[in-house]
Amino acid sequence: METREWKMEQQRLERVSDEIEQQLTKAEQNFDQAHAETYAVETNYGANTSINTIEEDDAMETNAEIQQQRNIVARVTETEQIMQNMVTTLHNLKASPYFGRVDIVEDGEAESLYIGLASLQDENGEFLINDWRAPISGVYYNGALGEVTYPTPLGDQVAKLTKKRQFKITGRTIENMFDTDVTIGDEMLQTVLGEQNDQKMHNIVATIQQEQNQIIRDTESDLMVVQGVAGSGKTSAILQRIAFLLFHARENLNSDQIVLFSPNRLFSSYISDVLPSLGERNMRQVTMSEFLTARLQGLTVQTLFNQYEQDQGPSQAIRQRLQQALESADLVTALQEYLIQLTSDQIVFTDIYFQGEKWFKANDFKNYYDRLPTAYPVVERIGMTRKHFLEKLQAQIETEQQADWVLDALNQLNDHEYQRLLDEDVDVLNEADVDMDETIKHVATAYLNEVFQPIDDALYNTQFVDVYQQFADFLTYLGHLQYAEIDEKWWITKAQRFLYQLEQHQIDYEDAVPVLLLRDLMTGSGTNQFMQYVFVDEMQDYAMLQMLYLKHAFPNAKFTLLGDAEQALFRPIQTPEALMDEYAAAFQVKKQRLIKLTKSYRSTQPIMNFAKALLPDGAQIEAFQRDGNQPRLITTTLENEAHILAEVIQQLQETQKTIAILTKTQAQAETVSAYLEAQAIQHQLLDADDRTRTENILVMPIYLAKGLEFDAVIGYDVSETNYPGEASRGLLYTLASRAMHELVLISVGDVTPLIWQVADTLQIET
Length: 766
Fold this sequence. Notes:
By secondary structure, the protein is an alpha/beta fold. Helices cover 47% and strands 17% of the residues. The chain is built from 29 helices and 26 strands. The longest helix has 42 residues, at 3-44. The protein is globular.
């Protein structure tokens, strides 16, 4: 690009950088002031709310002071948070003010717009930088030169796009810039993708492609399924979609109303910095096992990975058939039919205890349930039973208000405890005609509600039904039916295993969702009306029943499901269209959308050529044009494998930063770790419980590498023994597609035929 143009852009960048630094200095001063004010208010909170309950007027004054101080604390805390967010945003802009420019002509007027991570206005209100999420910024990602449209509150606006320019800026310096047309330029992608991988996922909004932008800016779809090949940027696009949604619906949506189901804890850590770098607070992140464990309080749910490892053992044919039956969407119908035929004698009622004594007995619940009309379904009769005993508990609380033991307990309260109980009902106590007797009554009620809270919780959560024993009965019921054409003895064995696991406070992965569905269908509970968006990564690893449960658990949420059918390590592979049809039928939504990303950006072309060749339909994957070395295949012996591993690691360390040694199982990862330990090679052995990466050399099973990428990957033992048949294609494809720059495969003994079939894509060594 000509020197004059470059100089003009550099001068503008310096003016914008000056403005950022001036605003940052002022913002930091405002933040320091807000922080000092918050500290002062919180420090004085106790001193400003002294308790005086002797006289009626004093009690009312105390309550007014409490309310006033709470409002002050909330206001100064909010101000401090706003100032902190502004400082963070300006720091991000200072590091790289903007990355794009579009020139448009609208209503005869020409205008240049610069696109960055956040908006920046000068003192006159002129936009120096436009937020990448703003409607007009969509032109940068979607528009080809010529006529373009962008959304406005009054409808689509038409403009003429005359220039699209891309920058690579560090601080106050333009390192690279060029003009492009339809898509984001390959030159910038080459630069970004050629960089080495660090410990955290990159924020790459500058390189969003048109197809990714469709995912990010969709606000209409109730169900979006994103099928993206490995390295297509689907995870990055989804995180940017979350940032866009939070920006787009700022008044009606906050990050607590979004949950992302991650494939593992390591992945959650890997993406943890992306949203903050885009100026948003992180949404909730959870693995499916963590979510289920939280809902099954007191039980540890087996992880998908533990289940996979267990299935690698001796013949598990019956177990896998039972597992498939319990994970099928058809099980919902079986549960519903089970509840229809359930009699009161078959419902497992249980006692509710308080302080070691039976407060309500199982027979109390059964006798009341029996008195209800049998025309009502089980869920309604259980609900009516719950309501009756909650009212009975409230009546007991009202009876106890004037009891001597309660008045004695109130007299023992200190000022802090009394204030806390007043806070529970402070609005009532602000009424002008409240007298001291009424105050004592309210405090007594608050105290008793707190004392009897465990009983209230037990009733509200329908703990008078033993759902675990009920589920064992359901498994026996399936046995009588020989459900899924499985002999009754195996269902009885499954029920026995379930009860044994229960004694150990554990539950098999495939049992968790059916237990929760049984509980919810019986009690009418288990739904979260607050959540607005649910994102599920690696959707191909979820059973349909699990997806249906998530839809049941979050009935008001819009769902975005993303994955890669070719990386189905735990389920049969399905086409994207078949998955879309299945989910659309199951979710029964009005607006659905399937988006396929077929271009891979992560790996060099030689690595992707090998990965594609492993797949029957790999030809549809388009590899980004980035040169590199051919993947290497080394055959060795059991006696020599440790030496070969060390040698390959040493070679890769000369040019690459992060190196992952990927194994098929956790046991193999531990073997590799022992080899490296014996040779004093510093590394980190990862398992499903790990959340952070602390070393540049990592050892882990393939399934923990889902969604991650590394500068170099060593595939450990790609032998025929370890990867024997067609079911291994997904594993090998996933392994290969984790590598950005270098891939080395080591086979202990004869290489699997799956790799020999594509030997022409490899550099073969012995």
